[in-house]
Amino acid sequence: MKRSPVLKIATVLGFLFLYAPIVSLVVFSFNENRLVTVWSGFSLKWYGELFQNDQLVGAAILSLQIAAVSATLALVLGTLASVALVRFRRFRGKTLMIGMVSAPLVMPDVIIGLSLLLLFVSMEQLIGWPAGRGTLTVIIAHATFGMAYVTVVVQSRLSDLDISLEEAAQDLGATPARVFFDITLPIISPALVSGWLLSFTLSLDDLVIASFVNGPGSSTLPMVIFSKIRRGVSPDVNALATIIIGLAAIGVLIAMLIALRQGKPRRTA
Amino acid sequence: MTLMDSLAADSRPWAFLRRLLAKAGLSGRGLVIAAPMLWLLVFFLVPFLVVTKIALSELVIASPPYAPMIEWTKGGELIVKLNFGNFQFLFSEPLYLNAYLGSIKFAAISTLIALLIAYPMAYLIARSGERTRNVLLMLVILPFWTSFLLRVYAWIGFLKGNGVVNNVLMSVGIIHDPIVMLQTDFAVYLGIVYTYLPFMILPLYANLVKLEDDLLEASADLGARPFMTFLTITLPLSLPGIIAGSMLVFIPAVGEFVIPALLGGPDTLMIGRILWDEFFSNRDWPVASSVAIIMVVALVFPIMIMRSAQDRMEEKAK
User: Which of A114, A183, A248 is the closest to B288 by Cβ?
Assistant: First the structure.
């Protein structure tokens, strides 16, 4: 079928819209001038300043740790929930679980953040745990919404899975746990990887929920960036953005190549 | 390890674990259900009960800043104080209603704009050859994996008084004085459309890629102009994709805080921002909780109902 030029122009403009701000962000990170949008010469000095900034580097390390732990927790909980929802035909509270596991997907961040903070405050009053707020409470909060995304991804893979493989292993005398670890888990592993990556990224990206449930003295990277850019643009944030975009591009490229090598690109999410 | 090997291998560790659990009165199946269930109950459902409780409490200057709802007097009497004043306050103050309506307006218009931009892109991607298609899809997905906050930040550098857009327009001579674009409603629309555009493109693409060329050719053979074919065939068939994409844009946009806070002006009213300000600036936890309750009832519940209706529609289509 012939494609009209209007369609092509609209698509080019669309991609221009998606990438123009990102490209300008990257270009001006190499700008020598303190005024972010006035070009005065090539320089790497903002990258140097970025790595000198202990607050930013510390926050970045903390955020990566929180993301890794909460994504792993979310993966375990989300996988269990998926197995329960897909493999167990009926159990008490199934409808409730379906509702609770999908609700975080439509719940605004401000509400999740506020409600969890109020829970933590009340729990501290009642049972003394968690004592104060900080890294632990952020991990709990991120695991809770990460779990919802993991469940969506793993659930769809599990329900596509040919159940006769599991039945065959069972007929040969394997216990349910062995069937799960030897048969089910290897087959759904691509979904586990994308679920983990998804909740890792969402945790790394979250400003609102962390702002509510975090305590003083353990600011995450988005919290530090937010308070910086509220005061205006600053070239070292551009440098940071360039590094993050570069890493994401490499990651997406690798994922793409893997998908291409496996023949037909598989449906992941 | 092959299947036979693993069956031949000693399975005692599992058996041991199972005996241990059975002694505690738990089956493996029970554990698989109980762990996520308990987590969700404690960290998702109970928090809403706490929010409801605090929404019905009075503001006091203390830490935490609300009065206890349930008290035991010295004589052993139980006193339950319910305070509906916070809700009365929300309904008497036009600010909150306007912010609620404002959020819906911002989210709805942004969704429509995103649809108009995304449709031709998704259509072209779906009709491209496999190689081009993969590259274009990667370009659509890439921004999603970079920081959301930094993508919003990119627009500050773009839109501000001495930003890229104004500099270009002034150097070309189209304008002489910088246009005020940052801290306006315009910037908020731009920010929302920009941020959530990939969420519109991907479901539309997934739908349009299934569209068969035969249908379009048949329509052309019968004498329909391309536009007529689009209106009578492509558009109706892509309706599920349009609905799915619109939900994915509308839902996060309506509770948005970051975009109005960074790109909007002081009079950009969105409910997520109001809740944030009540909590962090005014430190009024009861009113913030009441705003949250109203948001859940008037925004989240309708969305959940719409979503389950959409799921049922898709099930039927299968």
Answer: A114
Contact between chains at B123 and A7 (C-beta distance less than 8 A): yes
pLDDT at B4: 47
Burial classification of residue A174, based on how many CB atoms lie within 10 Å of its CB (0-12 exposed, 13-18 middle, 19 or more buried): buried
| B78-80/B70-72 β-pairing | antiparallel
User: Is B66 within 8 Å of B286 (Cβ atoms)?
Assistant: yes
Q: Cα separation of A121 and A126, whole Å?
A: 9
Please identify every stretch of chain B with a pLDDT value under 50, giving residue numbers as ranges: 1-4, 6-10
Q: Three-state SS for A136? A: helix
- Residue A64's pLDDT band (boundaries 50, 70, 90)? very high
The domain ranges of chain A are 52-231
Beta bridge partners of B79: B71
Task: Return the DSSP state at A130.
Answer: S
Check whether domain A52-231 has CATH 1.10.3720.10, yes or no? yes
Residue of B nearest to A234 (CA): B157
What pLDDT does residue B8 have?
A: 46
φ, ψ of residue B132 to 5 degrees: the values are -60, -40
Domains belonging to chain B, first-starting first, are 10-80 (no CATH), 93-283 (1.10.3720.10)
Establish if A163 touches chain B: CB-CB under 8 angstroms: no
| A264 — pLDDT class (breaks 50, 70, 90) | low
Looking at chain B from residue 72 to 111, which residues have their Cβ under 8 Å from any Cβ of chain A?
Answer: none
